Every structure is written in C-alpha cells, then in structure tokens.
Amino acid sequence: MFYENWLQTGSPEVDISHCPSLKENITTDCLVIGGGVTGLHAALRLILSGKEVVLLEKSIVGGSSSGQSAGFLTPESEEDFQKLIQRYGKEKAKEINGIPIQGVDLILNNIRDNNLNCDLRKQGSLYFSSKTSHNATILEEAEVREENGLPFQLLNKAQLKKVHPGNGYLKGLKYPGSYGINSFAYCQEMKKLLLAKGVKIYEDSEVQTLERSTAKTHLGSVAAKDILVCIDKMKTEFHEDFSKKYYHIQTYVAVSEPLSSEEMKSMFPAEELMCWDTRWDYIHYRPVTGNRIIIGGSSPWTAYLPYHHHSPRVISSFIRKLKTAFPAIKDVEFNSYWSGMIDVTKDLIPIVDYDKNNKSIQYAMGCAGLNWAAYCGDYMARRIVDPATNDLSEFLGANRGFWVSDTIQKILGKRISFLINHVYELLRG
To answer: How are strands ordered across the β-sheet holding 179-180?
Structure first.
C-alpha cells in the first residue's frame, strides 16, 4: 500500500483550485481562521447574512482532519444515545442528539442547493456485533431508540445475512438518515462556492499570533470585528487555555481498488450501507466511488500516541478482518492508506465558546464528525448575526465539568488525562 490520501490524489470528484497567500494588511467584518468543515460552514452562514468575510487557512482548504475523513454523515453523536440520557437526562439528551441530525441536514442541503460534486451517497447505517458478549450493546441501543421514537430495525443473525452477510456477524441495528461523501471534495467545492459569493480566502497563510482584533501571518494581517477560530492541533502559543481543552485520537483509513459487481454484492446484496461494529477499536467501512471500499478505524495501541504513526500495521489488520468476514474479496487489493489525528474533547462533545477576555473571538474545537463540524461552524456564525440564537453553553461550553478536571490534568499531563476521561466515558453506565 502507498501512504497517500487517496481522497486528494486519486478521487475523480476532486478538482483542486488554489488561493493566494495573504501578503498585505487588511480589515473585514468577520475573520474565519481554519478551512475545514467548521470554518467553511461558519463562513457560509456569515456571507449569506451580508457580512464581509475573510478566511485564512494554513495549508489548503480541507487539507487537515476534514479532508482525511472517511466521509460518514450519521445522525448521531460519538456517544450512544443511552449514554447521553445517562449524562443529561432524557429531554436534554434529545436536544443534544438533535445537533448531529441538524449537522447532516446542513451538509445535505448545501450539496443539493448548490450542486456540489462530492460523491454524495444515501447509505443506511448498520451497527453490528461480532461477539456474543456485545449483543447486549445492540439490544440496549435498540431499546433506547424505541423508547424515544427513533427509527430502526433490529436484525438477528439470519436477517443480518440478507443485508450484510459477513462471517461471524451476530446481531445488527439498522437505521436510516445517514449518507456518505468525499470529505476533501466537499471542502474544495465549498471553497469554490464561498469564493463565488464573495468570501476572500487565503491559503498557505497560517495565523502566527492573535492579538485583540488582529490576526497576523508571516506576510500579512487581518483586523476584524469578529473572529472565529476553527483550527485543530492548536499550539499553546496560540491560546494557552483553549489549547488544553483538546487532544487527539489517531485513526487510519484505506481505500480498495475497484471491486467487481459480484464482489460488491457479496458484501451488500440489497443496498449500500455504512457499517461499524461494537468494539472499542471499531472498524468502519462503506462503498465509495468506482465500486471501491473505504475502511477505517483506530487501535488502543496507537490512538493516543503524541506523534503521527504511519505504519500500515493497524489498517492492515482491519483489512484482514474484513476479508475474513467476506472471503469473496480476499484477492482485492487496498492500494492507498493514510493516518490522521482527530481532535476530541474529554467527553467527545465539541467545544464552542467565547474567549473569556475578548467576546469578539470564538473558538470551536474537538468537532469529531463532519456533521458536528458543520453545525458548530454554523452555530458560531449565528451567534454573531442573530442575538436570539439558542445558547448551548451547557453542552458546548469550554468550562463544563469533566471527570478529570483541568487541575488534575496539570499533574497527569494532557495525554493521560484524556485517556482516563475517555475510558471513564466508555465505562459509565
């Protein structure tokens, strides 16, 4: 396998255009820092509301986490609905569970309204168990969905065989409302849309310092009334307090060569699905353009490493498991793979909040999931253009309570603190 992001180098949907770097000192109404899905949706809401908007990106739009994603758009959080109920209670859990649904709608409507070319595919979600001990997880989630009027089908082993006949798959939960996209193509299409609407975009323009109302790059600066910071891997030098609020989970993605129709039908005899299992180091996969399969996941051995781990060992083990489950694809090659670090918070719910010392600056971070990223960017912008926007600080505030507090984090360090808090969130309930 070659180490390359196929979404950028091999996908037929991608038509890359480049914007110049910032080489002057300018002013604007609103400055968006970061050209991932969060920043792009913030810029879109602002420009549609009549604001003058500048967007700065350190490399190319979609060049970081957003453009490395396997492109799952699912109407749910990283947390199961049951755990959201345990944490917030039923009514508030419904409110926060509605956020990723709204995020999916934002992306879908944007693609359809503006005819964006990004391999949009309607693909139902399939959550399944491959261990008897994990069947209870499927049953619990089905029970919660039934209690709260959410659509689903609970599949036994025989029923599962009809829609996804993998060896060793025991019980499944299938539900609608999910889609797949080419995430990098989406970002590039969004860039063209924003440029056409009048947003000034500067690439290769990393913000080095942010002082009051001015962001400075190597060759220029932008002064703005409102600044929306939508970056990942934030350095301490950029903002000492907010940089403590995120860590990352390292994931891996690979894409196959084209499958024959028979090989694809051996996996998806009835319809295309996006699939993942109940294990902590879950594997997720789905069909993409050209009759290929994209597969991804993480490993407990590499998830929290402080550096990029580029070895194909982890993703190769996922591919072997997939081929064991579906012998018909045993000779299919997976030609490209890549790794990425997805920013997360301690409870896996994003942070969107104001700088406590400067209310003209907002920060968004830990937006794991394209739907969450789209919603958070739109939410930041709405708080500028519409004072009546519903305040979600209880869920998204930077200073909400975490099991491992910031005080304890000073002793344990960021990596250990986030690991412990994620294990706690996994085990609670």
So the answer is: 72-73, 179-180, 121-122
d(CA 143, CA 150): 10
d(CA 265, CA 286): 13
Tokens 């968006």 belong to: 32
Q: Rg for the chain (alpha carbons), in Å?
A: 21
Q: CA-to-CA distance for 408 and 412, rounded, in angstroms?
A: 6
Domains along the sequence of the chain with CATH: 19-69+183-245+347-398 (3.50.50.60), 124-177+248-344 (3.30.9.10)
Using DSSP's 3-state secondary structure scheme, residue 36 falls into coil
Average predicted confidence (pLDDT) for the chain: 93
- pLDDT tens for 130-151 read 999 999 989 988 998 898 888 9
88: its two tokens: 């917030």
* Strand pairing category for 221-229 and 247-256: unpaired
- Of residues 400, 403, 402, 404, the one with CA closest to residue 392: 400
Give the whole-angstrom CA distance, residue 225 versus residue 2. Answer: 45
For residue 152, give every residue at least 6 positions away whose Cβ sits within 8 Å of its Cβ, in sequence order, or none.
Answer: 142, 145, 146, 173, 174, 175
Q: How far apart, in Å, do the first and last CA atoms of the chain sit?
A: 40
Residues 241-252: tens digit of each pLDDT: 999 999 999 999
- Kindly report, residue by residue over 160-187, the tens digit of the pLDDT: 999 999 999 999 999 999 999 999 999 9
